[in-house]
Design goal:
Number of domains: 1
Order of helices and strands: HEEEHHEHHHHEHEE
Structural class: alpha/beta
Helix content: 25-40%
Subcellular location: Cell membrane
Number of strands: 7
Distance between the termini: 72 Å
Number of helices: 8
Radius of gyration: 24 Å
Largest sheet: 5 strands, mixed
Strand order of the largest sheet: 4-3-2-5-6
GO molecular function, one term: transmembrane transporter activity
Strand content: 5-15%
Shape: elongated
Keywords: Cell membrane, Membrane, Protein transport, Transmembrane, Transmembrane helix, Transport
GO biological process, one term: protein transport
Membrane topology: Single-pass membrane protein; Single-pass type II membrane protein
Amino acid sequence: MGKVKIKRKSTLIDMTAMSDVTVLLLTFFMLTSTFLQKEPVTVLTPSSVSELKVPTANLAQVLISPEGKVFISIAGEADPNVADGEWGSEPIRKEILTKAVSEYNKLHPNKKVELTEADANAFSKINMFGVPFQALPTFLRMSQTDQDKVISDMSRSDVGIPIDDNKDLTKPNEFQIWMRAIYSSGNDNLQSAMKKGEGIAVKADQSTPYSTVHHVLDNLQTLKMNRFSLMTALKTEQD
């Protein structure tokens, strides 16, 4: 008896539906994800068991590098359409810059900082900044590539917001000027968040000198900003 031949079937699989699903999922995650903002230095935060999340809107974040350099990041309303975008991140950064420079110039009439509208627009697009007031004009007129190179060089003396243990608020240091300008920006939601301790977050590397961290915390307390968050990484079983 002859062998019965089994009819071969095609192994071709139509992947059209799978491709459609993949594209839809990719689009969904891209639109709903919160992307990490660029920071001038990589910071390895200490670990803890806290699972509380730091808000991404109406927040002033203070970053302290391992070298002891201080930077500030400002985020406005999460919804750019709130109040016609009045207090989105870019408008509020411009307002804070105006207030901070104005106070600095009053305190230092012989070393006034002169900024143009183009400088203010450039500042509004910077997520995290950290240069002395005197270096602001030069820094803001650089290309973004050059700004990134400058602010990531921790060996430069013109990188990092100057800070000390000043207690005399009639002669505030530059860090205190910035924090007061942020508090009085005019955004009631940001001010309310700062009062509750939800609007200020301090992020430091686990190897950052304690003296610099102490200066930051002490300055906040001098400004009566006694409630703030310390950003940490979630502790693992290995820790």
